[in-house]
Amino acid sequence: MEQKEKTFESSWVMLVCISVAYIAGGVLLLMFPQISLPALCQAMGILLIIGGIVLIFSYFLQKRYLVPGHFEFAGGAACILLGIFALMRTTEVAFAFSQILALMVLGDSLVKMQYSMDLLRLQEKRWWAVLIAAVLSIVLAMTALANPFGNDSIRLRFTYAVLIADGAMNIVVVLFLRHAHRCYEKRILEDSSQDETEEFNPVEPNGVPMK
User: Fold this and answer.
1) How far is C-alpha 172 from the geometric centre of its chain's CA atoms?
2) Inter-residue contact 47 to 83 (CB < 8 Å)
C-alpha cells in the first residue's frame, strides 16, 4: 500500500510539474511572440536530451527495476531521441511546432478522459466534470490542428492559449483525482473497521448481542 501511494504521489507531482511548464511556456510565448521558433526548437531539443538523461539516471539510482510499472528508462530514451531529432531537423520541427503542441494537448485530453473513468469507478459523483474538461481539451486541440484561421500568427497565439488552458485544467483534475482517491481509501478503511467490529461482536442464538 505504501509503495502504491508513493507511485501515485510521484505520478501526480510529475503531471503537475508538466502542467506548470505548459502554463509558463504558453504565457512566455504569448508575451514574446518575436521569439525565433528554430532557436526555440533547438532549446527544446537540448532540454529533452537533458530530461531524458535525468530519467535514465533516476531509473538506475532509485532501483526502479525492482518495482513493476515504471517506464523511466523507456521514457528517457524517447526524450533523448526526440531531442536529437529536434536538433537535427530544426527547420521541420519549427514548421510543425504548433501541431506538436496541439498533439501534446490531445494526448493530455485522452489522459483526462481516463481519469474521468477512474473517478467513475471510484464512485465519485462529479466524475462527469472531468469528462467535460477532457472533451473541451479535445475540441481545442483538434481546432488547433485543423487550423481554420488561415493566418499563422493567429494559429500560434491560439495554440499557446490552448496550452495554457490545458495546463490549468490538468492541475485542477489532478488535485480533484487525488482528493477522490483519499476519500475512497477513507471509505475502504471505515468499511473494513466496521466489518472487524461486527466480526468480534458475538450474539446469542436469538440475535441479541452477548454482554
Assistant:
1) 11
2) yes
Residue whose C-alpha is closest to residue 161's, from 9, 28, 14:
28
203 beta partners:
209
Q: Same domain for 70 and 51? A: yes
Give the contacts of 48 (CB within 8 A, at least 6 positions apart). Answer: 79, 80, 82, 83, 86
Residues 102 and 76 in one domain: no
Phi and psi (nearest 5°) for 123? 65, 35
Range of the domain at 132: 1-17+97-194
Read off the pLDDT of residues 48-88 as tens digits, 9 standing for 90 and up. 899 889 888 877 777 666 655 567 788 889 889 989 998 99
CA 57 vs CA 35, 76, 183: distances in Å: 32, 9, 35
Determine if residue 147 is left, alpha or beta; phi over 0 gives left, psi from -120 to 50 gives alpha, anything else beta: left
